[in-house]
Amino acid sequence: MSTNNMMVVGVIGAGRIGKLHISNMEKMKNVRIKAVSDPFVNNMQDLFQLGVEKMTKNYQDIIDDPEINIVFICAPTDLHVEIIIEAAKAGKHIFCEKPISFSDEETIRAYEAIKKAGVKFQLGFNRRFDRNFSKVKDLVVNKTIGDLHILKIASRDPEPPNLEYIARSGGIFMDMMIHDFDMARFISGSEVIEVFAIGSTLINPQISEYNDIDTAIVTLKFENGAVGVIDNSRQAVYGYDQRLEVFGSKGSVNVNNETETRIEIATKEGVRRDNPLHFFLERYNEAYIMEVKQFFEAIENNTEVTCKFEDGIMAQRIASSAKESLMTGQPVKVKNL
Questions:
Q1: The whole model's pTM is what?
Q2: Which fold, 127-284+315-333?
């Protein structure tokens, strides 16, 4: 980035993911974190040590600041649409965490505002920027494994979130598996046209009180004829389990878990190696950095972002169809753009 194009950033929401972005941006050249808004900023004085110039409880202060040209939306999902619309009207480029909203109608309302304003918008599907998954995408595009036949994704968290989070999450498909729905579209290069979902509450029975589950499998039918399967669990006791397999007409490719070391110890008692990295902050840290760098490059060079608003719409629609399938016990078609 040239010194003439300073990225002046305002971050709305300074929870776990907001702080991660702030920490990563603080190390980037030509990036100035002018303001952070959060209802609990009084307890976040440590952010000043990360280069934050101003903190406020009111996100409107960021929207109204003419010097801020980029807004990061890391607030709860139910606040996303209004903030997107206000930021777009103010002419600010927007990076937004997933999902855009829990409602297709609300998401489309925000989409229209983005199109009208002509600002850059990138959604935080960080897994697209993981070096392993990016390599798999290239292998699929280059037909190294021939035509895609089967895509398998396993995504399992090390521990379930608290019930307060579950209550606002939108459910496992919208909160957790939505990353995998985006990965399915990204890796395959094809739209998902139909899903069939099954699931149970096997980890914490109280999750069912929120009309949600903690263990799920979704099968996918792609427009190009390929098929896929995604499994999610809220609790893998051995760590953050993130694996992917692509099977094609000329072979297959696998992505296994990242571990602390690649050391394998073999003794007469057995063979041991490290567990997977503990959670998403460790597993995908480089991907979080790359997604922000590429967003800033798209702004500076006036090029397209890697993960567009349309990608968010489609992942959200697949998630909604999966929830409908779970409730009805039937396969559900996915509405295309």
A1: 0.94
A2: Dihydrodipicolinate Reductase; domain 2 (3.30.360)
